[in-house]
Amino acid sequence: MKIYSHENQKLHKPKSFYSRGKIHQPQEKPERLTALLRAPEAMGLNVIDAKEIGIDPILAVHDFGYVEFLKNGYDEWIALEDEVGEEVQTSIYMPHNNFGLGILAKAAKYQADGSAPIGKYTWTSIYWSAQTALNAADALLKEGEPSNKVQICLTRPAGHHARKSAAGGFCYLNNAAIIAEYLKPKFKKIAIIDTDMHHGQGIQEIFYNRKDVLYASVHGSPINFYPIVSGHEHEKGEGEGYGYNNNFPMPHGTDEDGFFNYVDKAIDKVKLFNPDVVIHVLGFDVYKDDPQAKCNVSTNGFFRLSKKLKALNKPIIILVEGGYCIEKLNENLQAFISGFTLDE
Fold it and tell me: Packing angle between helix 256-273 and helix 299-310, nearest 10 degrees?
């Protein structure tokens, strides 16, 4: 097992987020990564400091103008003569018929909702979040027969809501999509299984018309729940990608056994696809006491989840994404890791 992280991921410190007509205190904050890092430390496991892979894998997935906005938008925002807030944050959402002339137009074009503000150090953190994920993918590319079948990336901010040219849902760069594309020269078939509480509409959008990357997502029903407009069962993919996009929306209030009924259905899709590599988007926001939870997974449930993933017997890269019950992240991550290591 290899575990990766990078300290620069802590630099992004959002001030607030806007949802359902209210300004909320930030939930996606640096303390999340601090709590997650306690788990491998407590278990005596080494955490590898991620090295820089570069910008090219990011640009292979995301539009150039969007990446440029993420990198330079804050400086343009602060340079405005008018009084502005501490972060790039829009109240106008207009991705189409928008030439992006000026920073306010760019924000309207590239920010999909009120939960992905851009501060002074946001680019640094999201860039190193992507680099952390890329380190695991790079290790697989450089090995002959993969010897490290389990690699865990403590990535923050998360990525699965990030679309090809839009930030939202606390996400800016789509790490799962970036590493899936990066792995393609060596591995023909990639499966992404997503068990975060929320549907990863960004992953779905990027691979919707492709059959070389299978997406299977277990998440809370998106009816009146983020991301609101995607994640339904009937969304199966398009063209040659039809059937390779699989959504398993859970009714709100689903218990742990119900959660695993959906997980088993997603795993069955992965087994049928028979991928060369599995990418797992792990959300601790399915935990019963998480402020975002609409289901009731216990700490032991994460042990149970990793045992099921281990049984796939495939090289797997785990991206730790959602999870906002900070006081339980350490314990829950230890339980998850134990499912891979306990009988080794």
Answer: 20
pLDDT tens, 178-209? 999 999 999 999 999 999 999 999 999 999 99
Please name the fold of domain 2-52+125-341: Arginase; Chain A (3.40.800)
Active site residue: 161, 198, 199, 219, which one? Answer: 161
The length of the chain in residues reads 344
Is the pTM above the cut of 0.90?
yes
- pLDDT at position 80: 93
161 annotated active-site = yes
Instruction: Spell out the SS3 assignment of the chain.
Output: CEEEECHHHHCCCCCCEEECCEEECCCCCCHHHHHHHHHHHHCCCCCEECCCCCCHHHHCCCCHHHHHHHHHHHHHHHCCCCCCCCCECCCCCCCCCCCCCCHHHHHHHHECCCCCCECCCHHHHHHHHHHHHHHHHHHHHHCCCCCCCEEEEECCCCCCCCECCEEECCECCCHHHHHHHHHCCCCCCEEEEECCCCCCHHHHHHHCCCCCEEEEEEEECCCCCCCCCCCCCCCCCCHHHCCCEEEEEECCCEEHHHHHHHHHHHHHHHHHHCCCEEEEEECHHHECCCCCCCEEECHHHHHHHHHHHHCCCCCEEEEECCCCCHHHHHHHHHHHHHHHHCCC
Q: By the 8 A CB rule, do 285 and 322 touch?
A: yes
